[in-house]
Write a structure and sequence with these properties.
The protein has 428 residues and is mainly alpha-helical. The chain contains 19 helices and no strands.
């Protein structure tokens, strides 16, 4: 049974999603990515290629570090690691404000550091889910978190519009010249992330564990990882699921990383239109995560993901084939509706499949599965875009990722995995 199921713990946990979603919405997806491709690169295709390499480099580091950090968190001090990675990501966001066009690789380096820390923090945060929800509510609680997260991204984007983007004279003394108003949105992300993550650190408790020394923790972490790999057959359903997620999540990472760049380059969306597009996608995603979170508890996480992947295939194909802005808006709504449940149900399925004593380690592998090949999608997008001088050709790779990931997911034995996790927990 979870160690804590009170409403304050659940709300505080969900509020961290609300806090960190400002980063993905304003920096990774809609505002800063588009600004970088236009302001820091000689042309938009080159900007798309540079940004894709930044995503790829950060993904490699995330994949390498996340399982080890998760194993260390299983030894104790999980919240310390969560606080450290959260703080580094916040500082990286703030640094982006001070970097002006002409310093493209410095800006990309700060983004890479912030993105690595953000994803590592997400892995530690996700591992709290089995502690705050029951077997009967884990799907909807995960959905609440994603829905509140999309709400946070939406409100953060609205704040950026009202305070910095729309006004002739931006608030707080910022100027329109040299993109300062857009770069100020990075400061907004830093403040937002810091402020709304506080309840997580105050009211979501850790399981009582011994706090070993740093040397002992590192040694035990290597031992735990070695043991897990030696006994990998015990965790076959988890491995099968992570292999499927390795592929379909790459499609999600890619489409979110390049959505605004694609809209600006292929459809001539203005900054204001990008912001409106982002708001629409976030509203759709929040509603999808909330509504299909209940479907998760009713039909099961695996089936919820399968339904969502079919929707993502259709939506991505529409985005690539349409030449009308209205068609792209419709594709964005569909992507939002089905992206939220894909992410939410993946998290809840992982929570059902892992034994409690290895939550952090396995959610580290969960983060790993989201990033181990996440360099592949952005890299292929950049290569195809450069080869064919077409953003549409670059973005077409996401459809393949969703199809292959869906096929692999079909073979994941969800019920067997839950039974095996219960048996392994009973043996510990």
């Amino acid at each position: 049974m979870p160690s804590q199921t009170n409403r304050r713990s659940v709300f505080s946990w969900c509020l961290y999603d609300f806090a960190n979603s400002a980063f993905t919405t304003l920096i990774v997806t809609f505002v800063y990515a588009m600004y970088y491709s236009k302001a820091f690169a000689p042309d938009e295709v080159t900007g798309m290629a540079w940004w894709s390499r930044g995503i790829a480099v950060s993904s490699i580091f995330i994949a390498l570090l996340s399982p080890f950090l998760g194993a260390m968190a299983d030894q104790g001090a999980r919240k310390v690691y969560l606080f450290a990675t959260t703080t580094i990501s916040i500082l990286g966001c703030a640094a982006l404000y001070w970097i002006t066009p002409g310093h493209a690789f410095l800006a990309l380096a700060c983004f890479v550091i912030a993105n690595i820390a953000y994803e590592l923090a997400c892995g530690l945060y996700n591992a709290y889910l089995p502690d705050i929800a029951t077997e009967k509510t884990i799907g909807r609680v995960s959905g609440y978190g994603w829905a509140l997260g999309y709400g946070g991204g939406l409100l953060a984007m609205f704040a950026a519009l009202v305070l910095f983007i729309y006004p002739e004279t931006p608030w707080f003394g910022f100027a329109k010249e040299n993109g300062e108003a857009i770069r100020a949105s990075c400061l907004l992300v830093a403040v937002w992330y810091a402020l709304f993550s506080i309840p997580m650190f105050l009211w979501v408790k850790d399981r009582p564990l011994a706090q070993p020394s740093a040397a002992t923790s590192i040694r035990k972490s290597f031992t735990q990882l070695k043991t897990t790999f030696a006994e990998i057959r015990k965790y076959r359903p988890v491995v099968q699921f992570l292999a499927a997620r390795l592929i379909f999540n790459d499609g999600l990472v890619t489409i979110f990383a390049f959505g605004s760049i694609y809209a600006a380059g292929s459809f001539a969306f203005s900054t204001n239109e990008i912001m409106i597009f982002g708001i629409i996608v976030n509203v759709a995603a929040g509603l999808g995560a909330f509504g299909l979170g209940f479907l998760d508890d009713y039909l099961g996480a695996k089936r919820t993901i399968q339904i969502s992947l079919v929707g993502l295939i259709v939506a991505s194909a529409l985005a690539i084939l349409t030449h009308q802005k209205m068609g792209l808006y419709l594709a964005g709504v569909l992507i939002g509706i089905f992206a939220g449940p894909t992410q939410s149900a993946s998290r809840s399925l992982m929570g059902r499949l892992v034994p409690p004593e290895k939550e952090n380690e396995f959610f580290g592998f969960f983060t790993f599965s989201g990033k181990a090949t996440a360099f592949l999608g952005p890299t292929l997008v950049g290569l195809f875009a450069e080869q064919f001088q077409s953003q549409r050709a670059g973005l077409s790779v996401v459809v393949v990722f969703f199809i292959v990931g869906g096929i692999l997911l079909h073979f994941v034995p969800e019920k067997m995995g839950k039974t095996m996790a219960e048996n392994l927990s009973g043996q510990s």
